[in-house]
Amino acid sequence: MILVIAIGSWLVYHFGFPAPRSPEHFNARTSGTPYILFSIFGTSDGKRLWAVGWGGTILESDGGEHWNARDSGTREELCSIFGTSDGKRLWVVGDKGTILESDDGEHWKARTSGIFEGLHSIFGTSDGKRLWAVGSGGAILESDDGEHWDARNSGTRDELHSIFGTSDGKRLWAASQSGTIRESDDGGEHWDARDSGTPNNLYSIFGASDRKRLWAVGTRGTILESDDGGEHWNARTSGTPNNLYSIFGTSDGKRLWVVGDKGTILEAAVQ
Q1: For residue range 65-112, what is the model confidence (pLDDT) as tens digits?
Q2: Whole-number Å distance between alpha carbons of 187 and 169
Q3: Phi, psi of 226 (to 5 degrees)
Q4: Domain boundaries, the chain
Q5: DSSP state, 255?
Q6: Which of 204, 185, 213, 218 is CA-nearest to residue 248?
Q7: For the chain, where are the alpha helices, taking DSSP H only?
Q8: What are the CA-CA distances from residue 228 to residues 21, 64, 155, 213, 234 (Å)?
Q9: In whole angstroms, what is the distance from residue 136 CA to residue 157 CA?
Q10: Is the pLDDT of residue 218 over 50?
Q11: What is the DSSP code (8-state) at residue 159?
Q12: Global confidence as pTM
């Protein structure tokens, strides 16, 4: 059974098994910018947060209530941000191969990506010693220092929207516009295609720490699940026709959240 709850302009679909109590209401905060924000990242204790978006926007907050603009040095669209768990090193990727790096969250330096394609997603190991970024034209970049980036052959020209991997970076998965999922089991050096069973665009991918359970979401309410490390994928019922753009969950994969069009938020407790 799917329970649909309307909260203001938000639609929340709660499906799956009973879950521990979670926040029922969200409070709006003043960002100080009119631009669309695409990605948010924070330290493990949530005391420092950053958000990025249109027009080269980078915002920083000391806990989420008050936000301050930072000079990114670019007007390009910034699509994704990732950093070490302590927030001491941060990276942002965006249009036209843009890569920015910061060692304090306030000052940002441009890094040379070597490509002109848009970069949509960035992922790295928890210590930030290995990083990967994906984007248009099947672009996959890898770095072992955050400053220098090398191109990898993804085996596709499809647009890659999202990348996720294990904490040590040995296994990686990337979601594409054609529904194909690319997988690497050697730290991003080589990539193989996996059949997801859907032609729908996939925008986000997430996995549990056991390396076996993975989920991907995309257009038309698509939710896919794999229980064998991405080898095989099965469709799950989302209960909505809306496009789904991002999925996140606890490290054990027992609680999941998905967001999408028209304020859609999906929540699930997984056995």
Answers
A1: 889 999 999 999 999 999 998 999 999 999 999 999 999 999 999 999
A2: 6
A3: -125, 140
A4: 37-248
A5: E
A6: 204
A7: none
A8: 30, 37, 22, 6, 11
A9: 8
A10: yes
A11: P
A12: 0.87
